[in-house]
């Protein structure tokens, strides 16, 4: 006889926070929350690098100085973040990520590269929501801290 697994309150709270982010649905939210709570990344760049969404310069043969995703890491989590970015870019109720997608394409990025930029932004955002236990606020998505050291001030 199988026993029922009791939900962990911290996980349920994190999933609920993440579900409010555009593009993050019932499959993606638990996967992100579980990873963030298990690994306890101390900086958002660590979480961006974990699924391989960090940018690396790729040089080999004829490819000199081209930047691309490192793709070292959890491929399934990278796929889920990409799918979340796709959903966020198409969201009609919250246009925050749709505007960002348009800006990335205006810079000259291909559609896939623009979606990967949104996936990186979503990774940083979800790290912040789970780590600091804050609610999603679309007005704060585009704001940057005044000083880079302010990210580490709380720890």
Overview features:
two-stranded antiparallel ribbon, 6 helices, 155 residues, mainly alpha
Please describe what this structure looks like:
Strands 1-2 form a two-stranded antiparallel ribbon. The chain has one domain (9-141). It is built from 6 helices and 2 strands, in the order αααββααα. The longest helix is centred in the last third of the chain and has 22 residues, at 111-132. α4 (75-90) crosses α5 (96-106), α4 (75-90) packs across α6 and α5 (96-106) crosses α6 (111-132). It is 50% helix and 8% strand.
Number of helices: 6
- In terms of quaternary structure, the protein is single chain
String of helices and strands: HHHEEHHH
Shape annotation: globular
Strand content: 5-15%
Quickly give the structural class.
mainly alpha
Poorly predicted regions are none
Radius of gyration, in angstroms, nearest whole number: 17 Å
Strand order of the largest sheet: 1-2
Outline the biggest β-sheet: 2 strands, antiparallel
Q: Report the mean per-residue pLDDT as an integer.
A: 86
How many E-type strands?
Answer: 2
What is the domain tally?
1
What is the share of helical residues? 40-55%
For the record, give the distance between the C-alpha atoms at the N and C termini, rounded to a whole number: 45 Å
Question: What order do the helices and strands come in, and which of them pair?
Answer:
Layout: H1 9-19, H2 28-39, H3 44-49, E1 55-60, E2 63-69, H4 75-90, H5 96-106, H6 111-132
Antiparallel strand pairs: 1-2
């Amino acid at each position: 006889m199988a026993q029922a697994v009791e939900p962990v309150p911290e996980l349920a709270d994190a999933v609920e926070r993440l579900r409010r982010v555009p593009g993050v649905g019932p499959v993606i939210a638990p996967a992100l929350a579980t990873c963030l709570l298990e690994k306890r990344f101390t900086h958002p760049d660590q979480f961006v690098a974990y699924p391989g969404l960090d940018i690396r310069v790729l040089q080999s043969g004829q490819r000199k100085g081209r930047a691309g995703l490192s793709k070292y890491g959890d491929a399934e989590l990278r796929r889920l973040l990409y799918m979340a970015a796709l959903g966020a870019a198409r969201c009609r109720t919250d246009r925050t990520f749709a505007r960002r997608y348009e800006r990335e394409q205006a810079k000259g990025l291909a559609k896939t590269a623009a979606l990967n930029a949104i996936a990186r932004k979503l990774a940083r955002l979800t790290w912040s929501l789970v780590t600091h236990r804050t609610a999603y606020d679309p007005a704060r998505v585009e704001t940057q801290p005044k000083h880079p050291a302010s990210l580490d001030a709380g720890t």
